[in-house]
Amino acid sequence: MIRFENVSVTYEDSARPTLRNVDLTVPEGELVLLVGPSGVGKSTLLGAVSGLVPHFTGGTLRGRVTVDGRDTRTHPPRELADLVGTVGQDPLAHFVTDTVEDELAYGMESLGLAPAVMRRRVEETLDLLGLADLRDRPIATLSGGQQQRVAIGSVLTTHPKVLVLDEPTSALDPSAAEDVLAVLQRLVHDLGTTVLMAEHRLERVVQYADRVLLLPDGVLGTPAEIMAVSPVHPPVVALGRLAGWEPLPLTVRDARRRADGLKERLDRCAGPLSRPAPSPDPGPVPEFAVPAPASGTPASRGSAPGRGGGLSLFRRRRTPAPVPGTGPDAPLVDVRRLAVRRGRVEALRRIDLEVAAGETIALMGRNGAGKSTLLSALVGMIAPTGGTVRVAGLVPHATDPRTLIRRVGLVPQEPRDLLYAETVAEECAAADADAGAEPGTCGALVAELVPGVAGGTHPRDLSEGQRLALALAVVLTAAPPLVLLDEPTRGLDYAAKARLVTRLRGLAAAGHAIVLATHDVELAAELADRVVIVAGGEVVADGPTAEVVVSSPAFAPQVAKVLAPRPWLTVEQVEEALCR
Amino acid sequence: MIRADTSTPGPAGRTERAERAGRTEQAGRTGQAEQAAATGRPGRWARFLAPEADRGNALHPGAWWLWALGLAVGASRTTNPLLLGLIVAVAGYVVAARRTDAPWARSYGAFVKLGLFVVGLRIVFSVVLGSPIPGSHELFTLPELPLPDWAQGIRIGGRVTAEQLAFALYDGLKLAALLICVGAANALANPARLLKSLPGALYEVGVAVVVAMTFAPNLVADVVRLRTARRLRGRSTGGVRAVLRIGLPVLEGALERSVAVAASMDARGYGRTARVPPAVRRTTGVLTLGGLLGVCAGSYGLLAAEGAGYGLPLLGAGLAAAVAGLRLGGRRSIRTRYRPDRFGPRSWLVAASGAAVALLMIRAASYAPGALHPGVVPLTAPELPLWPALSVLPGLLPAVIAPVPPAREDASE
């Protein structure tokens, strides 16, 4: 169905080819998964199938790509539109029309299908993806998971023979991701659609794949073969490698069948149902140049509050808000009966949350549950409609931003929002000035977190992981005792994620409190002391990670599912628990 | 039309029709039952009540625009503030009764504010620049700026009379009423759907306009997001400087997004064309160009004094040629339309109600010119003339007959 013959792609402004001599044949009706670290050309390979590379992106393609016999050299993307359906990373960038139903019909209209056929297929697709209730809704009002399903639906209506997906589940919560994957599997099984998909979160997708293509080597094989050698692999594979299982398990179910021996060994070593330390020793953490976080007392509030930015005519009076009765024992974050409304939507209701210094907390819950809203309330970007928020004794939304950044820092979902300057060095100079830190503080942090980045690089040219680290460095320049991260692992490969985990553990060991909102159950298992699950704007569970996560089918990491009811969550913990 | 799909639409079409019939029947029944339960009236009138709106029975957006233009024509015939107020009230009531919760429906408030701004601006200009309206009720005198001889006839400052203010107010209100009528159409009709009704040859232009229209709200959302993100860097979020500093990142983001949308459109078949014989292509060009030339020459003939004889036929011929050219050009486009809006009886009634307002007001201008243009010299209080006031009221018809939008759902995040 798809043939790559000795394909190399070189972009205009880069010296070496992004893809080199790829030979590949994908038969009809297979689900092929592309794996590999960031920047090995997964997106480029996908773009070459739909013809967007090089017709749209520029660059030079050598060799030959044919899809169902059509050469992409002579067929621009629009001539392949009836054959290949493409869904990119950002569903919002995919939409052409403004309501769900029109969006589903758009591709068919372009192909000139008969109105009766279009009508029938739209109805079928609405049912297939569970979108029937949303048919008249403006797309802008949908949640992330709903938008992703609309994006997939909009390419399904043309009945393409090939479906190309770039990270279809990275923005989704675990259950929404399962919905999307179930749809894909149904397409492959029932309709014989060929699916080519790139995804970083292998623990979600690898069991659905018929074949796996490992880049940059371009090796195609069965999932078990590739996972045995792949540098990127899901935790269940890591567990299998650790225990020496042959063949490697790809699903929790496979692993559980073979896990009896491992369970016995663990029980023998650690005693039955013993508890591992909730957070393993941070290990050899590189020495951080992080200045010790400012203590929670308002004494260190040196800069004059109230002076906002130059020409602002309608500056609100910022009241410095030292709170009486916040002694040294008071928790760093104290949220009581917090309520936030947006229009008529109650985004948060009766939220109670306390975070102590040095604690790491994972906020979990489905898309739109209110995780980001809670983080925004903690940094004062949203004023609460009811209840109180205290961060280090201050009321965030009523505090001057320049004072507040020394108490709490947020790395937003899109780290780019935080970066304005043309180069990394300028960004750092600005961050030092903003935070009133010594010149060079931010530069030292960047050197620690992202070694090897030249100061003259444009932030846009960094990889996702590097950009995240730069934003984290900018936030840490002010040495806030509380660091918040919103969805930090989106778009990160396993290596970048591992580096992030090491850094965050280092921060926690240095006394920072960390709150992360995430869909990534494996990340939560590795990092968090406590997990708080938010649903419908309310806290529905709050407790130690092992307790909350093991009992939940949606939020349990793979290792916990394999070894349940034993309390180990990560491969690392299992490795430590095994006696040699 | 090219059928890329070989499956027969026949049975599907039939079941679909049957389904739809079943659904309306069911909706009718529940409507009747509710009506009967609520008021105790016999249910047979229920079928004349406006149904709940969904895509299938939505009014044609053109109907809303015709209705609003009718009101606007009516407003343009009078300077009586009471009549203008009545027209604005009629438009406002219909908007309140029939608008949806969609993003474009929120633009009505912006148009009302714009109208008020226009009124204020008109009065300020009148105060500062003076007015040719003679008046005896002097309110106050501004210091007058001495101007050189060559600027004769221009005055800055000077005396301000009640008459000139009344005139400026009436004039400003007329403009405001026109704007509010346009705003009403904008709030009631989905602009994207209106563009969908364009002829096939213009469709791609229409899509470009739609994409441009979604661009603006996205830009605003970006500005808001980046402004709040400035807070995270410890900078102030308000002020002109904050907006200027984020200008570049916002534009960069917007550019990236438009490139991504363009890629998506291309990958989904935007711009696929059918092969047409060269003869047809050439005929299309000749007809369209010739038609437009004819329209230009015809309009010139109509406006110029000596060309009245050939003006009208030339205009007609030009229009016909242009329409033929567009239809022929539509052959190149293989697009089909998904569920186009139909101009059904309710749409006709809505359009007719607007036209009725326009015609009645034009007639009123001939039988009651005094009442439609209350005098400012001498200053008299405007009166509400009975018949012209009654002739505005047909504009309320859409509030009764247009399908009712479903109960507003709370928009999710």
What is the arithmetic mean of pLDDT of chain B? 79
Number of strands of chain A: 19
Structural class by helix and strand composition of chain B = mainly alpha
Cα Rg of chain A: 25 Å
Q: What can be said about the biggest beta sheet of chain A?
A: 6 strands, mixed
Instruction: Give the DSSP E fraction of chain A (strand runs of 2 or more residues).
Output: 15-25%
The global form of chain B is: globular
**Uncertain runs of chain A with pLDDT below 50, 5 residues or more?**
273-327
Terminal residue distance of chain A: 50 Å
Global morphology of chain A: globular
Q: What count of helical segments of chain B does DSSP give?
A: 15
- Oligomeric category: heterodimer
Tell me the helix content of chain A: 25-40%
Please, what is the average pLDDT of chain A? 83
Question: Structural class given helices, strands, pairing of chain A?
Answer: alpha/beta
Structure description:
Chain A has 21 helices and 19 strands. With 580 residues, chain A is α/β, with parallel strands linked by helices. In chain A, β7, α6 and β8 (194-198) form a beta-alpha-beta unit. Chain A is globular. Residues 273-327 of chain A have low confidence and may be disordered. With 413 residues, chain B is mostly helical. Chain B is 64% helix and 2% strand. Chain B has helices at residues 9-39, 61-76, 81-98, 107-129, 162-188, 191-196, 203-232, 239-245, 247-267, 278-303, 308-329, 345-367, 369-372, 386-392, 398-401, and strands at 138-142, 158-161. Chain B is globular, with a radius of gyration of 27 Å. The two termini of chain B are 41 Å apart. In chain B, 33% of the residues are buried. The interface between A and B is large, with 92 and 69 residues.
